[in-house]
Amino acid sequence: MLRLTEIKLPLDHPVDAIKTAILKKLQLPSEELISYSIFKQSYDARKKTDILLVYIIDIETTQEKQLIERFKKDPHVMVTPDMTYRYVGQAPSNLMTRPIIIGTGPCGMFAGLILAQMGFRPIILERGKAVRDRTVDTFGFWKRKIEFNPESNAQFGEGGAGTFSDGKLYSQVKDPQHYGRKVLTELVNAGASPEILYINKPHIGTFKLVGIVQNMRAKIQSLGGEIRFQSRVEDIHIENRRVQGVTLANREYIPSNYIVLAVGHSARDTFQMLFDRGVYIEAKPFSIGFRIEHPQPIIDSCRFGDYAGNKILGAADYKLVHHCQNGRSVYSFCMCPGGLVVAATSEIGRVVTNGMSQYSRNERNANSGIVVGITPEDYPCNPLAGIAFQRRLEAQAFELGGGSYDAPGQLVGDFLANRPSTELGKVHPSYTPGVVMTDLSQSLPDYAIAAIREALPAFDKKIKGFAMDDAVLTGVETRTSSPIRIKRKEDYQSLNTEGLYPAGEGAGYAGGILSAGIDGIKVAEAVALSILRSVNHI
Ligand code: FAD
User: Fold this and answer.
1) Is the CB–ligand 1 distance for residue 100 below 6 Å?
2) Which first-to-last residue range defines the signal peptide (predicted)?
3) ipTM of the prediction greater than 0.95, yes or no
């Protein structure tokens, strides 16, 4: 197969224009082209009067060898790389050892799926509820119909942190072995639209994610895996620096010498337990800030000009960075076009913001985190100090919001003028249970407030209206990534605890759904190889 890149066509091109472009590029007679498929579709919106679709196309042709020779100096014609996923091994049918996976976020789910596909029958332990029950709890809390449940919320429960999200599926991690393709393919097998395989920045949306998570669970179970909900791992047993098993909150002990720790960035009690048991943990940088909301049409018209509202382009996103005079960097985080700001706490008496959207992305506002990078030097340094720092900010936000899970908010105009907000303007914030207008300058350290005050007008130069008076800030955004790293060796095992495989976002090895899924696959392979070696199977 051959791959052609940088095939550019007008936004409203007819379907057969792709074939015409292929034949023209390769100077190929039509009968020599056996078939073609779109590998990637993105757009180039740099010229707003002439937005183009940009394709990467795979073709089958009778002339492959000749074309490779003829285009050997053309960087846009190449042999299609082999992206087939190959399992590293197969469990012997009489294998008694069963690996444990803690957590059913994307990392734990993919680790579980791959191990199950190789015949290892993993036991997957999840502190929260199955996704349908979790949805009732989480949406009930957001609508103030059900009390907040610290074990069943936006962070905890089947599907992990990204279940009620925009479901953005892109990542900047290097992926030479194409594990990302395996993640996307399995998501399609579980019910995601096949377009996620070729759209440049695919997203799934909350409601679809719920069904996909259920289908992945069914697949793991059909392959001999076991998934247990409301099974919080409360302790881990280590002897001679090797894991022996786990104890659940109900005191049940489950033995295993292979434990994948995929607990996400909010499992603060679990981090404390691991630290107390002597597992090596270190502090790592993360970011803090607010969510910002604008009317989506402002973003659309700035990014797409007269093409704003075009169905192929959809709701526009943005990515912004500003390097401040005080040495801090402010950047947009987890931007959700046409989405909602959500209450993402996992602890009683705290307020945390994040964003989600449905597949249609047709809510009135665009939202994004506007966050400032911080490092362990910003707080007293012990490995878990970042968690205490997050908790302090989240508890302060809870108080500022009136102590009932409403988020504190402020208009951008007031925030920049350093005066409290008393009422909303034209932009209605989407965060539920509710928003209390106040003065957000008390909610983050001074250096972060100064950095965001400098960044917003700078962002306005890139997106006209970004610093509009009526745009709304809500806070606080503290769960941007894990404040710790549970360091591992090259074989993916903990630096000082054999058989423990720290994985995904909580361990500091992923940031987002796709990269967490990829890390889950890598760790599953490492576990499989280690078990196979131990039974002399390789
Ligand atoms: P998690 O998804 O956090 O999963 C960890 C799981 O472990 C949880 O289910 C938890 O209940 C369980 N657990 C924790 N402790 C224990 C224990 N002791 N015993 C048993 N189980 C335990 N990323 C994107 O790429 N795109 C997006 O659009 C996006 N939007 C987001 C929107 C929101 C509202 C949130 C909160 C996050 C969003 N993210 C998004 C981030 C993304 O969800 C995470 O990066 C990803 O889920 C991390 O995967 P993980 O498997 O490492 O951990």
Assistant:
1) no
2) none
3) yes
